[in-house]
Design a protein that fits this description.
This is Pyruvate dehydrogenase E1 component subunit alpha. The pyruvate dehydrogenase complex catalyzes the overall conversion of pyruvate to acetyl-CoA and CO(2). One of its GO terms (biological process) is pyruvate decarboxylation to acetyl-CoA. Pfam families: E1_dh. The chain is of the alpha/beta class and 405 residues long. It is 38% helix and 14% strand. The protein has a six-stranded mixed β-sheet, sandwiched between helices. Strands 1, 2, 3 and 5 form a four-stranded antiparallel β-sheet that branches.
């Protein structure tokens, strides 16, 4: 995969002189670019560049535009959100090692461009459902950092009141966090059916990993979605490994965007936040125009193991991880493009970094000191609308509790 970007130059009157000056500076960059420039528009300065290898098409005559752009404000917003997800996962990593988080814990570090880029192209009433690597998506779907970290530590101000933990987080139009491998795909098709049944111009994004791509229920969902032309964007977040097994060893066809002969597919460079946003715009327009579902494969990488119980070094080398961090990191590469284009200064980035660090520290302190739910709360939220004085049985025939919610 070619991850290098060709930056479009629109030179001002003194542009030749500025370009020569920039070439003479010999900037040391992991993203070799021809030059950087900012185009002026009514909305303010705009970064734009070509990403010629950002997409591959399956059963599509044309795909998203290879010319991507963002305003200064959008660039700052995307950078901040990716940093929040990255630092939030670093906090979860530390709290898990300190045994403040128990059970399963799957981190999203390295995949931030997907959740940030996709959400930027979604409507506020679109729905989303994902697998157990859910923390980044939970935050992007409207849950605060405090709500995520408090849920991880099992506290009552968590987004699921401490009942769900790492794999079972929910929010507005966000249907989890699902622990059963691949089960979110047919559920997502059902949510998309609801959108169509109600006549809503919205889509459901159903995300799954490369490890779940071989599940039978995934193909059953594809079949039903195509038959009923459901507005569902099926997204395979391909981070290269299903648990500890590489895609090359687990899948006879590792081109997940081509896995269905009757649904069009789109391969996307999942490490470029702007390419992800442009691809999502295309996919959403496809679904809402009545053409039915579409499959997207987001090529990405995870920096940690499959879960916190997996060191992630027995099936890949440390050098492999470091190479991706150095050459393909979604946050560092996007930051560098903004700096090269002189759209944002290093001091501004430092200010954002400090702000995000403080946000995460405050949320972490809250998550550690927030009280847990009382034991009697185990009996609540079993029924959606329990009648008055309704009792629910405990673990034996002699324990009954009144419930009110």
């Amino acid at each position: 995969m070619n991850i290098y970007a060709k930056l479009i130059v629109r030179l001002p009157a003194n542009g030749c002189r500025l370009l020569l000056q920039q070439q003479q500076q010999k900037i040391n960059s992991s993203i070799p670019s021809l030059a950087t420039a900012v185009r002026k528009a009514s909305s303010g300065p705009i970064l734009e560049y070509d990403e010629p290898n950002a997409y591959k098409l399956h059963m599509l005559e044309e795909g998203p535009s290879n010319h991507v752009s963002c305003t200064r404000e959008e660039g700052l917003d995307f950078y901040r959100k990716m940093q929040v997800v990255r630092r939030m996962e670093a906090s979860a990593n530390n709290m898990y090692k300190a045994k403040l988080i128990r059970g399963f814990c799957h981190l999203y570090s390295g995949q931030e461009a997907i959740c940030v880029g996709m959400k930027a192209a979604m409507d506020k009433n679109d729905s989303l459902i994902t697998a157990y690597r859910a923390h980044g998506w939970t935050y992007m779907m409207g849950v605060s950092v405090t709500g995520v970290l408090a849920e991880l530590t099992g506290k009552k101000t968590g987004c699921s009141e401490g009942r769900g933990g790492s794999m079972h987080m929910y929010g507005t139009n966000f249907y989890g966090g699902n622990g059963i491998v691949g089960a979110q795909v047919p559920l997502g098709a059902g949510v998309a059916f609801a959108h169509k049944y109600r006549g809503e111009q919205n889509v459901c994004v159903a995300l799954y990993g490369d490890g779940a791509a071989n599940q039978g229920q995934v193909f059953e969902a594809f079949n039903m979605a195509k038959l009923w032309l459901l507005p569902c964007i099926f997204v395979c977040e391909n981070n290269g490994y299903g648990m500890g097994t590489s895609t090359a060893r687990a899948s006879a066809n590792p081109n997940f965007y081509k896995r269905c002969e009757y649904i069009p597919g789109l391969w996307v460079d999942g490490m470029d936040v702007l390419a992800v946003r442009e691809a999502t715009r295309f996919a959403r327009d496809w679904c809402t125009s009545g053409k039915g579902p579409i499959i997207m494969e987001m090529a990405t990488y995870r920096y940690f193991g499959h879960s916190m119980s997996d060191p992630g070094t027995s099936y890949r080398t440390r050098e492999e991880v470091q190479d991706v961090r150095k050459s393909r990191d979604p946050i560092a590469s996007f930051r560098e493009k903004l700096v090269q284009a002189k759209l944002v200064t290093e001091d501004e980035f430092k200010g954002i970094d400090n702000e995000v660090k403080k946000l995460i520290e405050d949320a972490e302190n809250h998550a550690q000191n927030d009280p847990e739910l009382p034991v009697d709360e185990l009996y609540s939220h079993v029924y959606s609308s329990p009648p008055a004085n309704f009792k629910i049985r405990g673990c034996d025939n002699f324990t009954f509790k009144d419930i009110s919610k």
